[in-house]
Write a structure and sequence with these properties.
The two termini are about 30 Å apart. Helix 6 runs parallel beside helix 7. The strands form 2 sheets. The chain has a 6-stranded mixed β-sheet, covered by helices on one side. It has a 6-stranded mixed β-sheet with strand order 5-6-7-8-10-9, with helices on one face. It has 8 helices and 12 strands. By secondary structure, it is of the alpha+beta class. It has a single domain, classed as 4-Layer Sandwich (Deoxyribonuclease I, Chain A), CATH 3.60.10.10. The protein is globular, with a radius of gyration of 19 Å.
Length: about 325
């Protein structure tokens, strides 16, 4: 994992209450655009070729055979994703389903990376705009449940300063998007085992009065039929230091492309520890793909989500 300079300094609660207190009259503030994007099996052409050969030979491939045989990306697909990343223009992007830093750099040139160190092909982490101070922290390994699932990735922004912000990137177990909980399904049980670990991390940040965000692919919708699931559990964990806020609250949902019929998103950005006071009103976006690009290129089954914050300088 790449490492950045600096040391951690926790914010006090006095820095966090009220935009007027955070950014006094005449003071300046820096924009921070946070995003999350699941890139759907973003792997190298060599990995795809190796897996395809294994599938044909009846050997055990590193990728599912339908991915290796039917979802390989070309250089033009990578170029299209890079154009979309440039248009997204985010300072920090939580990325999911990425094989390696080398592959991620093809989509995010000019960025630095913190990527999980698990044994899976579907790694996750952060792309950080060059010049933004950061430090890669230790992975939240417990989320992987013995390296069978994906770890959490922790990133500190502006380390060693009064503006320190901590981010947790997640990609939770798939297969339990809207089932009532508790559920008998194996996928839902694994998802439910992961949730208290995320909630515990949130509780720790809240107790420390540490500004934070949790963002990524939760593989779970928010809704009225989920009273014992994602939002209630995480919201309870974030009590204190201003609670926890869904950055998408009040924003309309839109599908990524024509033909999709999702009712809500499984990708989320939650702000806590007072960071929610810095969200620019109306800045949350779920960025749909240009129709021509969606038809022509192999992009992703997820589209980016983003929010803008005003961080006191």
């Amino acid at each position: 994992m790449l490492r950045g300079p600096g040391a951690r300094l926790r914010l006090t609660a006095a820095l966090l209450w009220g935009v007027a207190a955070l950014v006094p009259a005449g003071a300046t503030a820096r924009d921070l655009r946070l995003a999350s994007w699941n890139l759907e099996w973003l792997v190298s052409t060599a990995t795809t070729r190796e897996a395809r050969n294994a599938c044909v030979a009846g050997a055990r491939p590193r990728l599912p055979c339908d991915v290796a045989l039917d979802q390989a990306r070309s250089a033009t697909d990578f170029a299209a994703l890079a154009r979309l990343a440039r248009d997204l223009d985010a300072d920090v992007i939580a990325i999911q389903e990425v094989e390696s830093i080398e592959v991620a750099a093809q989509v995010f040139p000019g960025y630095r990376f913190c990527l999980s160190e698990g044994r899976v092909v579907q790694n996750l982490g952060f792309a950080i705009r060059r010049g933004l101070p950061y430090r890669c922290e230790a992975d939240l390994r417990e989320l992987s449940q013995g390296e069978h699932l994906r770890r959490g990735v922790v990133l500190s922004l502006y380390p060693g300063t009064a503006q320190n912000v901590r981010l947790l990137g997640v990609h939770l177990k798939s297969g339990c998007p809207r089932s009532h909980l508790p559920s008998a399904s194996a996928a839902c049980r694994q998802w439910q085992n992961q949730l208290p670990l995320v909630a515990g991390w949130i509780s720790q940040q809240s107790r420390q009065r540490q500004p934070f965000a949790v963002l990524g692919d939760f593989n779970r919708e928010l809704g009225a039929d989920d009273p014992a699931g994602l939002w209630m559990s995480l919201g309870a964990a974030g009590r204190g230091a201003g609670g926890l806020a869904d950055a998408a609250a009040g924003a309309p949902f839109r599908n990524c492309r024509a033909g999709q019929n999702h009712a809500s998103s499984i990708d989320h950005i939650f702000l806590g520890g007072g960071l929610q006071a810095l969200q620019v009103p109306g800045s949350f976006q779920r960025v749909a793909y240009p129709p021509a690009d969606a038809r022509r290129y192999r992009l992703s089954d997820h589209c980016p989500i983003a929010v803008r914050l005003k961080i006191p300088a």
